[in-house]
UniProtKB/TrEMBL annotation:
Pfam families: Cons_hypoth698 (PF03601). The chain crosses the membrane at residues 37-56, 90-115, 127-144, 156-177, 218-235, 247-266, 278-298, 310-333. InterPro entries: UPF0324_pro, UPF0324_YeiH-like. It is found in: Cell membrane. This is Putative sulfate exporter family transporter. GO terms for cellular component: plasma membrane. Belongs to the UPF0324 family. Its main location: membrane. Keywords: Cell membrane, Membrane, Transmembrane, Transmembrane helix. It is a multi-pass membrane protein.
Length: 334
């Protein structure tokens, strides 16, 4: 931890912070806000652009600090993300809705691994990252999974790109689906929360459909976000036997337990509203800076080398979420 505050790491950390803050500012500007592109998405894009322009300088002066932002800032951001959840609201959804979330998450992860490895010939890391982004909570899930898998940066970038493409498509498609399916607003909100990639995209869709759908959709989506904890713990447990030393503890993503602790604190402790709001702002900044640091270390040549297969996998998962999610929503909930 002492190395995180050392002088050689400051340029890279300041760079990640600057790119992240710029991305958040751009995301809130009127032209981009209409496209519903989140700050995390723009942060990795701006990071990639800077990385291409800076070239070799990234690997010398800025690399140590960028590594700190990718590791420590990301973990703290995931922990603070738990303050967005309230266990009381989640339990109030009822058993059928919670079962729907579990089935969609487990089904998407399983399908992603099976299709990615068996049919598309992808490596395990790329398949898992792409499936996690689709199944749980988009770019935040990809980043959290990367910290457990210790995947190469270009694989993370490819997975985030697929979330961006199909998550943005959701924003324009789902309001049309509400008319086509004939689902009443609350039921459509359940369907949206159980199947759309990012929390921000769920909010955008809910606002277009109406308040009856928006509030329900966000709570259902946050229940999916909470499933990031058992997923990461399972990944850490599976990695542990292969560690050189340290046993189970070495592979355990302890920041996932911190995420759960923050959720419990937000549910049962009297956290002042001003403090909670400030921590959520800090959380957004940390995640944006981590995304920027990740993008800065990526080269476009490595993205091109990945080819179309990750996009095909993400398309298949998108179809499963949209069509299979509708069928399961009607069957389990309606």
């Amino acid at each position: 931890m002492r190395r995180a505050f050392s002088l050689p790491t400051l340029p890279g950390q300041l760079l990640a912070l600057g790119i992240g803050l710029s991305a958040l500012a751009l995301a809130s500007s009127t032209p981009l806000a209409r496209l519903h592109l989140g700050g995390l998405t723009l942060a990795i894009v701006l990071g990639i652009v800077w990385g291409q322009l800076a070239g070799a300088r990234t690997g010398t002066r800025f690399a140590p600090g960028l590594g700190i932002a990718q590791r420590h800032w990301l973990r703290l951001g995931v922990v603070l993300y738990g303050l967005r959840l309230d266990l009381g609201d989640l339990l109030g959804l009822g058993a059928a809705v919670l079962l729907l979330d579990v089935v969609m998450v487990v089904g998407t992860l399983s399908l992603g691994l099976w299709l990615g490895r068996r049919w598309l010939g992808l490596d395990r890391e790329t398949a898992l990252l792409t499936a996690a982004g689709s199944a749980i909570c988009g770019a935040a899930a990809v980043l959290a999974t990367e910290r457990t898998l210790r995947a190469e940066p270009h694989k993370v970038a490819v997975a985030v790109a697929t979330v961006v493409v199909f998550g943005t498509l959701n924003v324009f498609l789902y309001p049309l689906l509400q008319a086509w399916t004939g689902l009443e607003p609350r039921l459509f909100g359940i369907y949206t929360g159980a199947t759309v990639h990012e929390v921000a995209q769920v909010v955008a869709i809910g606002q277009q459909v109406g308040d009856g759908a928006a509030d329900t959709a966000v709570v259902v989506k946050l229940a999916r976000v909470l499933m990031l904890v058992p997923f990461l713990l399972l990944l850490g447990w599976r990695r542990a036997p292969g560690e050189a030393s340290g046993g189970l503890a070495a592979g355990m993503p302890w920041f996932a337990l911190g995420f759960l602790a923050m959720t419990a604190a937000n549910t049962w402790l009297p956290i002042p509203g001003a403090l909670r709001d400030a921590l959520l702002v800090l959380d957004t900044v940390l995640l944006a800076a981590a995304m920027a640091a990740l993008g800065a270390g990526i080269r476009l040549s490595s993205l091109r080398a990945a080819g179309p297969r990750p996009l095909l996998l993400a398309a298949a998962l998108f179809a499963f979420l949209s069509v299979g999610g509708y069928v399961l929503t009607v069957w389990l909930v309606a």
